[in-house]
Amino acid sequence: MRFELFIAARYLRAKRRQAVVGVITAISVIGVAAGVASLIIALAITNGMRRDMQDRLLGSTAHVDLMRVAADGIREWRPLLDRLRKIPHVTAAAPGLYGQVLISRGARSGGGLIKGVIPADERTVGDLLQKVTEGSAAALEPQDASAAATHLSDERVGAKREHPIPGGADTPERPVAAQAVPPIVIGKDLAETIGAKVGDTVLVTSPQGELTPLGLVPKYQRCQVVGIFSSGFYQYDSSYAFMRLKDTQRLFSEPDLISVISFKVDDLYSADRIARVIEQEAGKGFQTTNWMEQNRELFRALKLEQMVTFIVLALIVCVAALNILIALTMMVMEKTRDIAVLMSFGVTEMQVRRIFLLQGLLISVIGTVLGLILGYGLSWLGGHYRFPLDAAVYSIDHLPFAPRVWDGVIVGAVSLGVSLLATLYPSGSAAKVLPAEALRYE
């Protein structure tokens, strides 16, 4: 062990003539440990939020969406879909038809975003249909004619309307779908809002109505809830619903029309570049959006939150560094006689400076190591025993933890650096002690 480190360690363990110096030293260690642990936990939470949201978003939505610039949708989409699937780096593509609807059951209703899909294709670009927790999405698969005819005999549309048209008498229901009651898969929170369970029949009302002698009448369709999915992401669980593409086209009176072609790509962070290639291949009149554009503000806010959290919690380490400064300053005052004796034996000013620099560094190292152990330990416990959150407020149902080794390196370096700066003044004061004067007055 080096001479300076040996003396620094002895000074750190020695009994104090002034107990307050020992108390301040202990507070310094605890302060550094608390600051480091807080930073590790906070960074683990922000990293977990970012990772969890990104995974949920990318799992629930496509990487790239292709739409028409005009609002008339995409016609003759099958040849276009086959051609775009062959673009390099595109791993999957699926057609879809979006539409805002009102989904109701009895007196309870909720707004929803219906997406008409081909299930086999939709599963390749998103996993919401694979997160069905009640019932099954298998009913969305195309049925053969015999099965449809059998179901039609049981659930034929043609009954009287349940709700009268304002200002008029009840009229027979218009034949939106002269076939079996279509299946629908809805989100967990949407199901709770309208009080629907698997097997219940809900009324899906489209604002794209038809002009009748009684005025503009919304178009509606009774559907049977065959599945309820839970993604853990409130935005989807509270408003999304899936129907077969043909049923959705029939509801919106849009035969063989889609509104979007969704793509999965092999490189998430090259989605913008691949999107430009898709847009060029599709031709004029098309535009693309990608997951980074759609969620840019969200991830920017998370990044800003991470930086602000780091700066605010780093102040705890700064306060602990001030305690180190105070403790070392008082120790220099207490050890003035010892410093003078050492210097009279030939110890140089630089060696005296190193003694107190190393003493402050030891305090910082002990606190930093304890803080890292505590921070990573609590982060592991938080990830193992999930802390529940209100999904309606935070968009996720539990608090995610994602501690990273690189964060520990940065936090440790910042802690040691700040603490080292705090030792410069007291170590410099110790090096300026004059042995003759110190021994004369001590």
From TrEMBL:
Origin species: Edaphobacter modestus
Top-level lineage group: Bacteria
Example of a GO cellular component annotation carried by this entry: plasma membrane protein complex
Biological process annotations from GO: lipoprotein localization to outer membrane
Biological classification of the source: Bacteria, Pseudomonadati, Acidobacteriota, Terriglobia, Terriglobales
Residue stretches spanning the membrane: 20-45, 307-333, 354-378, 405-425
Occurrences of domain MacB-like periplasmic core (ranges): 25-280
Main location: membrane
Domain ABC3 transporter permease C-terminal: 311-432
Name of the featured protein: Lipoprotein-releasing system permease protein
